[in-house]
């Protein structure tokens, strides 16, 4: 099914892509206006402030992740983790973008409290889902690791965005090695 995005949705998608590639503070409305061949004022009509667009980007990404959770609901634990890794591989392939959580976490001290809260809540959703997948894998015997689920969740939550960030300067080989080590981390004894 092909979905045609309206202008408001296209603004969010383009904003998300720019923010993931160059960061929230480096991004500006002019970049979207040029791509959509509209005036900045048209963007301000939908998103009066940069914070409003940032919040829309966080919310859209959160909604996309909730759909991901639903699609993966009945998948085996390793398939869930593989799907998450695939998402990060796509970020890397598509212009070495950061995930949205990393994008806003990188400028966490400079964004508004409203945005800080939104990104913290989104991060907790991801961490909770990941912890559930890890627990499911331990209980089924698919995963073998000796640290706590909370520690393993934190390891994955730090390594995935870290691989994207450091992969920018160290290259694809480093990025791939970091993701491979994540998969191995749930299979060690």
From TrEMBL:
<keyword id="KW-0805">Transcription regulation</keyword>
<dbReference type="Pfam" id="PF00440">
    <property type="entry name" value="TetR_N"/>
</dbReference>
<dbReference type="GO" id="GO:0003677">
    <property type="term" value="F:DNA binding"/>
</dbReference>
<protein>
    <submittedName>
        <fullName>TetR/AcrR family transcriptional regulator</fullName>
    </submittedName>
</protein>
<dbReference type="InterPro" id="IPR009057">
    <property type="entry name" value="Homeodomain-like_sf"/>
</dbReference>
<dbReference type="InterPro" id="IPR036271">
    <property type="entry name" value="Tet_transcr_reg_TetR-rel_C_sf"/>
</dbReference>
<feature type="DNA-binding region" description="H-T-H motif">
    <location>
        <begin position="28"/>
        <end position="47"/>
    </location>
</feature>
<keyword id="KW-0804">Transcription</keyword>
<keyword id="KW-0238">DNA-binding</keyword>
<dbReference type="InterPro" id="IPR001647">
    <property type="entry name" value="HTH_TetR"/>
</dbReference>
<feature type="domain" description="HTH tetR-type">
    <location>
        <begin position="5"/>
        <end position="65"/>
    </location>
</feature>
